[in-house]
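Lab notebook, bench 4. Still working through the backlog of constructs that have no structural model yet. Next entry is a single chain of 117 residues. Request: give me the C-alpha cells for it.
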Amino acid sequence: MAANLGNRGRRGETTPILVEHEGEPVGEVLSSFRGPSGSLRVLGSIHHEGAKKLVSDGTMLGLSLGTDVVHRQGQEHRPLTRSVQELSLCVEPRRRGCYISEANGQRFKTATLAASA
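Model written out:
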C-alpha cells in the first residue's frame, strides 16, 4: 500500500475521507508517502464543516484505512492484493499510533511507536 493515495488509478482519482467508514466523503487525500520509519504519512483536505470541527476540537483525531482484500477461497490468511478504498476520521483507530498530528497549523499530541529489536 505504498502508492500515493492522492492519485489512485489511471483516472487520477483521489482517495475519499469519510467519518467512521460511513456516509458521503467529507474530504480527500491530496498526497501520501512513506516516512523514514516506514509509516504512512498523509496530507488531506476536509471540506465538511462538521468534520472540521470534530478534528479542531480534538473529538476525532484517529485515522483508519478502509481496504478491499482479495484472496483465494480457503486461503483467507494469505491475501493476493489489498487496495485502499478510503481513509476515515475516527475516534479510536484500529492500528495504534494512527492519529492526525497537525491541522491548519494546530499541532496535536500523537503517539510515537518505536520498533524493538
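Notes after review: The two ends are 24 Å apart (CA to CA). The first helix runs from residue 49 to 56. Flag for follow-up if needed.
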